[in-house]
DNA sequence: GAGTAGATCCGCT
DNA sequence: GCGGATCTACTCA
């Protein structure tokens, strides 16, 4: 079932970020579809959140898309990487969800061409997955249905356990530094900064084998 | 396997 | 000028 844009205002952002775990992201390309399951997300919860790009309600050219309608794609560049976010909540409320890691399902050879790495290193980080999927800044500010991206639920992928931690790379932001707003599929090898001993090689953290 | 330094560039102050 | 929602290579074990 394809996720529509009203999903992105149907619950608080932290809940939506959890619901995206196990959701399949499809990128339609000339060479065919690239498909990957979302295994790690982070929630950014608005102008009070010191780690949010819309902190304080200040709108700039860079963060403008974050203030747009729910279901808008927000991309921005960081150290030469492109990071992918989906905007949540009403227009003017700068909340969003960062996609931090995905597990490839289909189009592996095309992904490897985009990013010549094997195993988890292909997509186990926010900058890595945009490279592998060929996502760039042209997506910024576009509504999901206007982009080559599709999000859909697949009953095959249900996390056995969702783990909650503080967000990565957020330092010196007071209580927001430790806020439990990062969500991941426990044991999935594509989760970023995953320790080898925590990996569930049997089921990749899903409820059943695929 | 785990931890750390350096690269590198755009947008904002 | 400065610093960031990162990545990679290099170290030590």
CATH architecture: Roll
Number of domains: 1
What is the overall number of helices?
A: 4
Query: If you consult CATH, what is the topology?
Result: 3-methyladenine DNA Glycosylase, Chain A
Average the pLDDT over all residues and give the rounded result.
94
Integer-rounded radius of gyration: 16 Å
Structural class of the secondary elements?
alpha+beta
Helix-residue proportion: 10-25%
Distance between the termini: 18 Å
The main sheet comes to: 8 strands, antiparallel
Poorly predicted ranges:
none
What sort of overall outline do the alpha carbons produce when their principal axes are compared? globular
Describe this structure in words.
- With 210 residues, this protein is an alpha+beta fold.
- It has a single domain, classed as Roll (3-methyladenine DNA Glycosylase, Chain A).
- Helix content is 12%, strand content 29%.
- It has 4 helices and 8 strands.
- Strands 1, 2, 3, 4, 5, 6, 7 and 8 form an 8-stranded antiparallel β-sheet that branches.
- Strand 1 and strand 2 form a beta hairpin.
- The protein is globular, with a radius of gyration of 16 Å.
- The protein binds a DNA duplex (13 and 13 nucleotides) through strand 3, strand 4 and helix 3.
